[in-house]
């Protein structure tokens, strides 16, 4: 059974469901019918990720959603209500977009790898959420889009994550046309890693999560951080950076244990955190 996470007394209960199996934590968006990323949902998810960041016994996070829509992105009704504010909604719009940016950055900077489990539509900031995760596995009926241009609102903030996950021209295609792409196209574009039949989605995600969670927690933490940092560097700078990372990694006890286990033809016993 999933536990309902209520991080703030004023929030509606059930916006975020939490289920843990050994070293893997599953967070499930539960904001029907579209799992819109309202202020409350983003704050709940951010608070949970903040807590997870310091939990060395959690090695992998899975991000899933209930219902037929993974996430429809920002809550447009919530945004529209604030157009009647004295500033025509500027302060609320800034709060929403900055909170979304903080959420995506938190996923990027989280020590644990994050796997997106997508069944259904991931659109706008929902597509941004998928693109921000380290891995993405979807059903063969999942769909993706950045449709802001269709309503006079270019998906500028989703563009940051999508353009870093998908190939440049494919990302522009999504952003300029606003058209929905199927799972196969999303995989070709680089948005998702694997496509599986609906009935096997959670099983496959759990397998990936378990495999990753079985690795050295020190190596996972160092590797994820180094991956994202070197990706923003020039070639020579990246090699200089990862050379230092590799040396520091070799000096850690998990590397000593792992190499010793490999040479001794035994299973390693990870001790690092």
UniProtKB/TrEMBL annotation:
InterPro entries under this entry? ClpP/crotonase-like_dom_sf, Enoyl-CoA_hydra/iso, Enoyl-CoA_hydra_C, Mitochondrial_ECH-domain
What SUPFAM superfamilies does this protein map onto? Answer: ClpP/crotonase
Keywords, in A-Z order:
Fatty acid metabolism, Lipid metabolism, Transit peptide
Domain of life, per UniProt, equals: Bacteria
What CDD domains does the annotation carry?
crotonase-like
* Protein purpose: May play a role in fatty acid biosynthesis and insulin sensitivity.
Family named by the database record: Belongs to the enoyl-CoA hydratase/isomerase family.
Q: What is this protein called?
A: Enoyl-CoA hydratase domain-containing protein 3, mitochondrial
Q: Which lineage ranks, top first, belong to the organism behind this chain? A: Bacteria, Pseudomonadati, Pseudomonadota, Alphaproteobacteria, Hyphomicrobiales
């Amino acid at each position: 059974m999933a536990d309902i996470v209520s991080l703030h007394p004023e929030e509606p209960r059930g916006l975020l469901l939490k289920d843990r199996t050994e070293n893997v934590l599953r967070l499930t968006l539960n904001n029907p019918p579209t799992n819109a990323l309202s202020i409350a949902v983003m704050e709940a998810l951010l608070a949970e990720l903040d807590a997870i960041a310091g939990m060395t016994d959690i090695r992998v996070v899975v991000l899933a959603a209930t219902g037929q829509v993974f996430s429809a992105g920002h809550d447009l009704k919530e945004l529209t209500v604030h157009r009647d504010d004295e500033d025509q909604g500027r302060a609320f719009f800034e709060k929403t977009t900055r909170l979304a940016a903080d959420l995506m950055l938190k996923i990027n900077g989280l020590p644990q790898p994050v796997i997106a489990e997508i069944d259904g539509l991931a659109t706008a900031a929902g597509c941004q959420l998928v693109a921000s995760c380290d891995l993405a596995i979807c059903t063969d009926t999942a769909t993706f889009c950045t449709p802001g241009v269709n309503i006079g609102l270019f998906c500028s903030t989703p563009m940051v994550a999508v353009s870093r996950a998908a190939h440049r021209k494919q990302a522009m295609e999504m952003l300029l046309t606003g058209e929905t792409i199927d799972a196969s196209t999303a995989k070709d574009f680089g948005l998702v890693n694997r496509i599986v039949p609906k009935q096997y989605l959670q099983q496959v995600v759990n397998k990936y999560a378990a495999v990753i969670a079985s690795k050295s927690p020190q190596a996972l933490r160092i590797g994820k951080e180094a991956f994202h940092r070197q990706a923003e560097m020039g070639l020579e700078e990246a090699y200089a950076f990862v050379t230092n990372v590799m040396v520091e990694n070799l000096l850690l006890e998990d590397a000593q244990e792992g190499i010793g286990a490999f040479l001794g033809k035994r299973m390693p016993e990870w001790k690092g955190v």
